[in-house]
């Protein structure tokens, strides 16, 4: 009987599903408890607000995350909808950690290497921060790991079913950020150079195409946004999807940025290409995310992949460099450093390969030099990785990474209160001029929390704050309020500060 129990216990411990369950039980509460409880600004606030309202986010639409938030906020009726949206994002981040573990495990054949890479990645400075508020980054890392997992399995043993899984993961990856297009040529090359008998048969090809179309089904959410009007006035609504923007941003205007009003932003005061200006930012963020020890290991890991899995290594290199080029050399987005997180996800795969190669190297050395004591060398190396990972975890949970998350929560709470103060202080029928990144706090209070009162919130040019339309609003008899003053406003109008955070615009007396 004891032998039977022991055999069953070994079977459970060696099962493929148990690590995924344990990682979910660890990462899920970690990310859920870290989730910001109030509405955010910028893309965060847009995803939280439009996810609840059922709208379409700015190009390319982000149907997977927006549709998931819309569904979750309909099912979970208690709590702040923004908090629910952030819980949804935290769930995607948890799934990304699980997908990283399984893809790393498949590549390295080492659970320890996969676990080390998962812990280091999941607690990274920017990765942890991106998991706390609804955005496209956590979803993008999940989709990236799913594609890596599918490609690694296909590269190892190509079959019709595994080709269909690659097609499914690829289709699903196209339901988030346009950066997924960078994966397509590399994925096609891996498949084309790893053929199998019967690959060109009509049945195999039709199955792969059908799987890819199934992956694209989240785009059906867009139909809701097109058919059901969303009561929020913003310039982006005019361009519902803007899929052509991907080509425009990546190829058309690589060194200038056009703001929402159509005016070109001030040029960079530097003669060097933008990629040289921004490169130190990536180097700094990468060092903050991993540290020298892990960076050295992941560089070794990519070399190991290039030797053992050249197709996968090439896929990682192409996708990472193309994403870096987009983030560093294209228009200077205010949040371009967030795209570094996608590169960090690829680096985590290489880290797993580096840790796995070190452990396998210890096994080889032990068997070659001291077969009787070889297991002690493997145990010592494994223990060293466990200690290093524990120290890393302690550093992240007590250092700048935790402080950053706390600040995000505090800032969102403060700004959400300001948004409420604005809409409750404005007189009914008032018009509020705000720039895009700060517009979601009052919009959320008006549209989601119900403080409507016939208010109008206009997104205006950041530099002019819409002064060209100010007199027209005043002539219509409506009250005009301003997020921030400018010298032009102070010269042309009388500004009165309201609630200590915004201004009412009055004609000069």
Secondary structure elements and pairings:
Layout: H1 2-13, H2 17-34, H3 42-53, H4 63-75, H5 81-108, H6 111-122, H7 125-131, H8 136-156, H9 160-173, H10 183-192, H11 202-215, H12 221-227, H13 244-252, H14 274-290, H15 292-308, H16 310-329, H17 340-369, H18 374-398, H19 400-425, E1 431-434, H20 440-447, E2 456-459, H21 470-475, E3 480-482, H22 487-492, E4 493-498, E5 502-507
Parallel strand pairs: 1-2, 1-3
Antiparallel strand pairs: 3-5, 4-5
Helix pairs in contact: 2-5, 3-4, 3-5, 3-20, 4-5, 5-6, 5-8, 5-17, 6-17, 6-18, 7-19, 8-9, 8-17, 9-11, 10-16, 14-16, 15-16, 15-17, 16-17, 17-18, 18-19, 19-20
Could you explain how this protein is built, in words?
The chain is mostly helical and 509 residues long. It has two domains: 383 residues, no CATH class; 82 residues. 65% of the residues lie in helices and 5% in strands. It has 22 helices and five strands. It has a five-stranded mixed β-sheet with strand order 2-1-3-5-4. Helix 5 packs parallel to helix 17, helix 7 runs parallel beside helix 19 and helix 8 runs antiparallel to helix 9. It is elongated, with a radius of gyration of 26 Å. About 7% of the residues have low confidence.
Brief synopsis:
The chain has 509 residues and is mainly alpha-helical. The chain has helices at 2-13, 17-34, 42-53, 63-75, 81-108, 111-122, 125-131, 136-156, 160-173, 183-192, 202-215, 221-227, 244-252, 274-290, 292-308, 310-329, 340-369, 374-398, 400-425, 440-447, 470-475, 487-492; strands spanning 431-434, 456-459, 480-482, 493-498, 502-507. 65% of the residues lie in helices and 5% in strands.
């Amino acid at each position: 009987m004891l032998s039977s129990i022991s055999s069953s216990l070994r079977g459970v411990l060696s099962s493929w599903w148990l690590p995924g369950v344990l990682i979910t039980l660890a990462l899920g509460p970690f990310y859920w408890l870290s989730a910001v409880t109030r509405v955010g600004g910028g893309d965060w606030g847009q995803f939280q607000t439009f996810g609840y309202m059922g709208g379409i986010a700015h190009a390319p639409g982000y149907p997977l995350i927006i549709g998931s938030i819309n569904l979750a906020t309909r099912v979970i009726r208690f709590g702040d909808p923004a908090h629910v949206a952030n819980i949804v994002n935290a769930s995607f981040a948890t799934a990304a950690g699980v997908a990283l573990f399984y893809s790393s495990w498949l590549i390295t054949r080492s659970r320890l290497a996969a676990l080390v890479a998962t812990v280091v990645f999941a607690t990274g400075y920017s990765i942890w921060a991106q998991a706390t508020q609804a955005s496209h980054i956590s979803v993008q890392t999940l989709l990236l790991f799913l594609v890596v997992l599918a490609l690694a399995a296909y590269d190892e043993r190509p079959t019709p079913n595994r080709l269909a899984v690659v097609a499914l993961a690829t289709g699903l990856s196209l339901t988030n950020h346009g950066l997924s297009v960078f994966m397509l040529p590399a994925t096609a090359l891996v498949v084309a150079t790893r053929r199998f008998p019967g690959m060109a048969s009509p049945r195999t090809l039709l199955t792969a195409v059908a799987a890819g179309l199934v992956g694209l089904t989240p785009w059906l959410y867009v139909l809701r946004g097109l058919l059901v009007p969303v009561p929020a006035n913003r310039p982006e609504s005019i361009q519902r999807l803007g899929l052509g923007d991907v080509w425009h941003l990546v190829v058309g205007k690589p060194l200038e940025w056009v703001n929402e009003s159509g005016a070109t932003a001030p040029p960079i005061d530097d003669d060097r290409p933008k990629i040289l200006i921004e490169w130190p930012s990536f180097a700094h963020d990468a060092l903050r995310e991993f540290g020298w020890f892990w960076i050295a290991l992941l560089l070794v890991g990519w070399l190991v992949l290039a030797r053992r899995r050249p197709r996968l290594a090439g896929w990682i290199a192409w996708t990472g460099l193309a994403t870096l080029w987009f983030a560093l050399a294209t228009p200077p987005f205010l949040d371009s450093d967030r795209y570094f997180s996608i590169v960090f996800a690829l680096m985590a795969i290489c880290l797993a390969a580096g840790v796995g190669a070190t452990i396998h190297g210890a096994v080889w050395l032990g068997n070659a030099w001291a077969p009787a004591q070889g297991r002690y060398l493997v145990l010592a190396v494994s223990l060293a990785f466990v200690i290093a990972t524990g120290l890393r975890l302690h550093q992240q949970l007590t250092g700048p990474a935790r402080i950053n998350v706390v600040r995000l929560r505090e800032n969102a709470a403060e700004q959400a209160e300001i948004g409420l103060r604005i809409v409750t202080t404005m007189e009914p029928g008032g018009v509020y001029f705000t720039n895009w990144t700060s517009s979601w706090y009052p919009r959320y209070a008006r549209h989601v929390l119900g403080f409507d009162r016939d208010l109008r919130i206009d997104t205006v040019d950041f530099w002019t704050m819409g002064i060209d339309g100010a007199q027209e609003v005043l002539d219509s008899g409506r009250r005009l309020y301003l997020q921030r003053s400018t010298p032009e406003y102070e010269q042309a109008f009388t500004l009165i500060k309201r609630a200590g955070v915004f201004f009412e615009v009055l004609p000069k007396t």
